[in-house]
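Good morning N.,

You mentioned wanting to compare the apo and holo forms, so I went ahead and generated the holo version with PRP. This is what I fed in:
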Amino acid sequence: MSNVHVFDHPLIQHKLTYIRDVNTGTKEFRELVDEVATLMAYEITRDLQLQEIEIETPIGPAKSNVIAGKKLGIIPILRAGLGMVEGILELIPAARVGHVGLYRDPETLKPVEYYVKLPNDVAERRLIVVDPMLATGGSAVEAINSIKKRGAKNITFMCLVAAPEGVEVLTEAHPDVDVYIAAMDEKLNEDGYIVPGLGDAGDRLFGTK
Ligand code: PRP
Ligand code: URA
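and this is what came out, ligand included:
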């Protein structure tokens, strides 16, 4: 699967260990998700296009690079995707943020859409869809269907923990989407939770149960 990238950066792996730990409380969980999102954003923006401009340094004239090309958009899948937005905005403060609200029906595990609001120039932006968890893959596939229906063309998906089942479902449904994962876990359990995973990402981020 050439468009699937798993990060092995030691800082990401270190922070992810504490994100997984059941003894990590809400405040620290939130801070760590934020930090990992920043580190992942740094890695996935390596291929951004540059353009040379002329500036004046205190010593004299210089030609130097700035970011060019498509503008960025961040699309968190509500709720848990919200936890990754600030970390990405740290590096890309001018990015627009759109939202796709989905929840997973606890019986069927199928995603149910309840909210969509996107930047109006979504077709012209490079979009990063974010959600900490890729489990059955249903939510990611549905969120990407939803934004493609509204014109999105250039899409990357970024998550913290993925199950192999979800990666397969996502890459089959959207072979054009690059998928970035901090850790590929073993499997899903009978309730559709990732093993060993980190539990319910939304509940851990927002302190709900
Ligand atoms: C979680 C998670 C993903 C989804 C992943 O959201 O944040 O969106 O489950 O599961 P899937 O790959 O099987 O679709 P949840 O439905 O619990 O909603 P929440 O973020 O509002 O808690
Ligand atoms: N959603 C979560 O929050 N955690 C999982 O393990 C699976 C889906």
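Residues 8 and 182 are 7 Å apart (CA to CA).

Happy to go through it together on a call whenever suits you.

Best,
F.
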